[in-house]
Amino acid sequence: MSDQGWCTIESDPGVFWEMISRFGIKGVEVEELFTMDDAELSRLGKVYGFIFLFKWKPELQQARETIPDADVFFAKQVVSNACATQAILNVLLNIPSLEIGPALTNFLSFSVGLDPMTRGEVIGQEVAVRMVHNSFARPATFTFEEKRKPKEEDDAYHFVGYVEKGGVVWELDGLQSGPVFVDCADQATWGVSALRAIRERVEAISRADVSGTGQGISFSLMALTEDRLPQLKAITDPAAAAAATGEITEIESRHAGWLNENIRRRHNYIPALVELFKALSDKGDLPAVIKETVERTRVKEAERTARKKKPAS
Strand 156-165 relative to strand 168-172: parallel, antiparallel, unpaired? Predict the structure, then answer.
């Protein structure tokens, strides 16, 4: 397995949106879903695909029946920690209407006729793709001569894509040998079939939870949708343009917020925090601050877990 130092990626719409943009793919918005009911689809508009995240456990992984000769772009994951990028490419390289930029266009042309394993190897060798992926690595606090080996109890998360192509809904799981047939559906109704399949997978994972408590199970679902901003800005009718102003402002504000959040993700706050801890320790305030911070973190994590468990409904 040729990992070449790929980092883990946070399941966050702002992270995925910037990654997609920097890959050279245009016209894609990212929406995080907190429910999986069919009514949610009407809010999303045109959906290119879904990316489902779940906590992966070896005992839950099983080979599924795949369609190896399907007319679908699919790359098997042979690169450690690359499943986020793998899911993005597996979904969006199946959308012929998208502008994907020269690098991915060349990659897509080159990969025609390659088997899924070889495609995965080629992705692992794409320096530009790896650089975008690794630009979201968390700043390292310290550098060790020997890389820490994963422990059995470490959490592992996996991304799986869902897309419609040729009147068929496909599940694109890089850990499988090929695309998995989900259902037959046209472009207008495929999202209903995809969400139903994801709900069934959530239920299956929950049933197989060895603890029987549901604790430690977490899911996330993002929709890759059409970016409405270019269309809204192209409106020439004065009345319609005025009506679209609010939505344009909201989208641009969301994008700006994501970019700012991603800058903060990349920034190394450790030196400043070390100095702050020294000052608090000198004043004797450090134990109280640590206790308060731990409690706030516990509450926020509980709230986030509760939101992420909602999609199973």
Answer: antiparallel
Q: Could you tell me which residues come within 8 angstroms of residue 3 by beta carbon, excluding any fewer than 6 positions away?
A: 79, 80, 81, 82, 124
Question: pTM (2 decimals)?
Answer: 0.80
Lookup result for tokens 């700012």? 260
Domain boundaries, given as residue ranges, for the chain: 13-227, 270-312
Question: Per residue in 162-214, pLDDT tens?
Answer: 999 999 999 999 999 999 999 999 888 899 999 999 999 888 877 766 555 44
The CATH fold assigned to 13-227 is Ubiquitin C-terminal Hydrolase UCH-l3 (3.40.532)
CB 55 within 8 A of CB 155: yes
Q: Are 175 and 13 in contact (CB under 8 A)?
A: no
What's the CA gap between 137 and 6, in Å, rounded? 9
Catalytic machinery residues: 83, 158
Say which DSSP state 310 is in: G
Which of 234, 114, 122 lies closest to 178, judged by CA? Answer: 114
CA angle at residue 94 from 201 to 87, to 5 degrees? Answer: 45
Tokens of 176: 């499988």
